[in-house]
Design goal:
By secondary structure, this protein is mainly alpha-helical. The protein has a single domain, classed as Alpha Horseshoe (Serine Threonine Protein Phosphatase 5, Tetratricopeptide repeat), CATH 1.25.40.10. Helices cover 70% and strands 0% of the residues. Helix 7 packs antiparallel against helix 8.
């Protein structure tokens, strides 16, 4: 798990943080065959590689590919369960649709994200950022 799932994902996150989306996507190729697998007992399936890959596609301005990655969270809720990335995938999906020019789907994804976060502290930076992005869609 460390060699083929977590290490490539961590390396990709580091590259993404350094604004190198292309290299992040290269590192994530190793994790792709394993990201939808059932995790070992007592370990949550997080789909973390798909999240980082979606963010890398957003950074590379490929909204369609990013949407595909974030959609995995909605399609495989049994893997993600209540892991926080499942809720954040709605925001990633909203951003991907906005980047692709699909404003209607983007609005819907933002609204889904806001519904999940309706009781969250309004000062959370990611929530404030999402509200600003949503306001620009109108």
């Amino acid at each position: 798990m460390l060699k083929v799932y977590w290490l490539p994902t961590i390396k990709a996150a580091i590259e993404l943080n350094a604004n190198n989306a292309a290299q992040a996507l290269v590192f994530l190729e190793a994790a792709a065959p394993y990201e939808l697998g059932e995790p070992p007992q007592f370990q949550l399936g997080t789909l973390y590689p798909a999240c980082i890959r979606g963010q890398a596609y957003l950074a590379a301005h490929n909204g369609t590919a990013a949407a595909t990655e974030f959609q995995k969270f909605l399609d495989h809720r049994g893997i993600v369960l209540n892991f926080p990335l499942g809720a954040l995938a709605h925001l990633g999906l909203a951003r991907a649709y906005a980047l692709s020019g699909d404003t209607a789907k983007s609005r819907t994804a933002y609204q889904d994200f806001f519904a999940l976060w309706k009781d969250a502290d309004p000062d959370i930076p990611i929530l404030k950022e999402a509200k600003e992005e949503y306001a620009k869609l109108k």
